[in-house]
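User: Can you help me understand a structure? I only have the sequence.
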Amino acid sequence: MKRHDIPENLQFDERGLIPAVVQNAATGRVLMVAFMSRESLEKTFQTGEAHFWSRQRNELWRKGATSGNVMKVLEVVADCDADCLLLRVSPAGPACHTGETSCFFTSLGSDAEGRGETPLSEMIGELAELIHQRNEKRPPGSYTTELFAGGVDRIAKKVGEEAVEVVIAGKNGDAAELCRESADLLYHLLVLWEETGVSPSAVGEELKRRRH
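Assistant: Let's start by predicting it. Here is the structure, written out as tokens:
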């Protein structure tokens, strides 16, 4: 993250704090909410890692200093009133002290059918993270490990095969089949991205560029 000067119009409260929403840059999932002081914001810019201000301990703290689950900050954005910040981060591990990925995991309600739906972007991001872990650890017996062992040729071949299956399902007009085959195609495409060093966020930025 590039170094920036703190805007003069940021609205710190009477305690010198401003709330910060922390979001996984890859998945879009909200991970936590914390408070930042001018000092912690400056420290975040200086180090590229998330630093906050503890209201309980009344001190500066670096996220992951104890757990190792540091957060690399990719972008800091202020809202329209300049009284809240959004930190887009790449987390090294779970954000919550309970071990959960996000601090927001207790549902107080859902849709009319009694079930919440996970956004596709979030699922793709989480799957991409899992595929990345498989690539690094190469656990035996894993299908993903077998794909990486076969290299780009095998992975690309599978992407081609799954793409054909998607076309056939679409031609057949079978929505359930198309859904299944699309999931297979997305999975193998994510493996290909991982093998060739392409991140989902980079693809997202390319789509964003084309939207304008």
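Now, to help you interpret it: Residues 143-172 form the longest helix (30 residues). The chain has a mean pLDDT of 90. Let me know which part you'd like to focus on.
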